[in-house]
Specification:
This protein folds into 2 domains: 5-130 and 278-341, Quinone Oxidoreductase, Chain A, domain 1 (Alpha-Beta Complex); 137-273, Rossmann fold. It has helices spanning 49-55, 124-128, 131-144, 151-154, 167-178, 190-198, 211-217, 232-242, 278-281, 289-302, 319-330, and strands at residues 5-13, 24-29, 37-46, 61-67, 72-79, 91-94, 107-111, 115-117, 158-162, 182-187, 203-206, 223-228, 243-251, 270-273, 310-314, 337-341. The protein is α/β, with parallel strands linked by helices. GO terms for molecular function: oxidoreductase activity; zinc ion binding.
């Protein structure tokens, strides 16, 4: 029996996004689910900084098409023999695994333990904007920073979210506000500041200026939590200066320079990383927590508590539109998420 084929967008060469060969249309074999895998018919995808980092120019050539894309909303078409959480016809959303082929293809395999039921009140494109950023925001706030879900326990506590207008920040602001924290977001342009306020931040400061005087101007000496979503090394001294004694700092952005952890010592402050692919990459015992948290995110969306962060939609899903999405993301000036729908 001949193998079925499907459309996909990927790369063989790692090139600048202006090069038309940086992302190309292709036809490849349609995969077959085994074990705990679901075969998903991809309806919509979104683009994240990880896509542009993986695609960035480097001296390497792939012998087979490398498919990127770590945000998918779609429909379960087939299930592997060990699947217990889903069945064909289920509408789902997820971010996938960095060590497996991405979701920029008509059909995609994903482990059911990192998949959630799609929110019912939004469409596939709006749902595709959420998984990677929602998982990152949720794990950063609740697993890494150890923030309580109990509003009463968070009363009077402050969180500073650096880079609050981006994909992760847009979700983190809403989640932090929902659990009762006082939320201070950072942004640098009028449109991004307005977006952060619209998402629920109590205050917005500029991350190109010193944090401490800006905090003092709005009546705060320090903050209990810092969630850094932008240029860790650039903001390191500012973060160390404003973190409260015994406070916690979490970053999702790799640093090009060594960080002076001694700055945190006399405050007994904590620094922790968040990388949302850790659980799927290392097949951790608690990998299924991403299934649970995505379902919680879906509930919050369906209750109207959490809004989608989709800001721009492109159609169809093809190499030309994906190159444009990568180009926009690489400007560093996007607000919210860029999504693509329909092959």
């Amino acid at each position: 029996m001949s193998q079925e084929l499907m459309k996909a967008v990927g790369l063989y060469n790692y090139l600048p996004i202006e090069d038309t060969n940086s992302l190309v249309d292709a036809v490849i074999e349609k995969p077959v689910p085994t074990g705990k895998d679901l075969l998903i018919k991809v309806e919509a995808i979104s683009v994240n900084p990880v896509d542009t980092k993986v695609r960035a120019p480097k001296d390497r050539v792939e012998s087979q098409l490398k498919v990127l894309g770590w945000d998918v909303a779609g429909v379960v078409k087939q299930v592997g023999p060990e699947v217990t959480l889903f069945q064909p016809g289920d509408e789902v959303f997820y971010a996938g695994s960095i060590v497996r082929p991405g979701g920029n293809s008509e059909f995609h395999l994903v482990d059911e333990r990192i998949v959630g039921k799609k929110p019912s009140r939004i469409d596939f494109a709006e749902a595709a904007a959420l998984p990677l950023t929602a998982i990152t925001a949720w794990e950063g706030l609740f697993d890494r920073l150890g923030i309580s879900h109990d509003q009463a326990r968070n009363k009077g506590k402050l969180i500073l979210i650096i880079g609050a207008a981006g994909g992760v920040g847009s979700i983190a602001v809403q989640l932090a506000q929902h659990v009762g924290l006082t939320v201070i977001g950072t942004a640098s342009r009028p449109e991004s500041m307005a977006w952060v306020k619209e998402k629920g931040a109590d205050h917005v400061i500029n991350h190109y200026e010193s944090f401490k005087p800006q905090l003092e101007a709005i009546g705060f000496q320090n903050v209990d939590y810092v969630f850094c979503l932008n240029r860790t090394e650039q903001h390191w001294r500012n973060m160390a200066e404003v973190i409260a004694p015994q406070g916690k700092i979490c970053s999702i952005v790799e640093t090009k320079e060594l960080l002076d952890l001694t700055l945190l010592m006399d405050k007994s402050a904590t620094f922790v990383w968040e990388f949302m692919f850790t659980r799927s990459k290392y097949q951790t015992d608690d990998m299924i927590e991403q299934h649970h948290l995505l379902n919680e995110i879906a509930k919050l969306v369906d209750q109207g508590i959490l809004g989608t962060t989709a800001a721009e939609k492109l159609s169809p899903i093809n190499a030309e539109n994906l190159r444009e999405a990568h180009r926009l993301l690489e400007t560093g000036r996007t607000v919210g998420k860029i999504v693509l729908e329909r092959f």
